[in-house]
Amino acid sequence: MLHIDSPKLQTLEQCLSLNSNEEVLDGYQCDNCHSNSRAMKAVYYPRLPELLCISLSRFSVAEGKVSRNITWNLNKLNMEPYTADHRIPTDRTEHPAPQYEYECYAVIIHAGRDISSGHYFTYARDLTLADSSMWYKLNDSQISKVGRQPEIFGNSNDTPYLAFFRRKQSGSSGGKL
Questions:
Q1: What positions does the domain USP occupy (predicted)?
Q2: Residue 108 contacts by C-beta under 8 Å, 6 or more apart in sequence?
Q3: Hey, which CATH number is domain 2-167, 3.40.50.720, 3.60.130.10, 2.60.40.10, 3.90.70.10?
């Protein structure tokens, strides 16, 4: 699971980029020689799983619930810019290039105004179907079709909290929304 902060940003890609920005560390103590020096810190993922869960930080002590909308393309999330392969190029002659594209198949939504109250429900689609573009809303014991373009990003009180992605298969175009 990746935990992503979402300070005043509008897209998941912006949040991922912020998470992987290089940061200068002044006065960093080297583990080997124990001297203080300037160092760089950055987060890059060495390998990505077939199934990926991204947790969006939606609550803060200072602000309470963070109701800013964060959006992303439900059919295509390119994770390559956030990988070690992108940062440190390697010779790909011996091994095929890994697949970096993901498609979203479920989103857990927090409905409510603050951290102490509210309700959770899910939007999901079945990616095993030939036409996987149909989304469903799963809310307690009720399941309803919501169409090809669900209201995942539409309501300020209903905010995405967890997003689930599956690595796209080679040659797969995914469902169209």
A1: 1-168
A2: 120, 121, 122, 160, 161, 162, 163
A3: 3.90.70.10
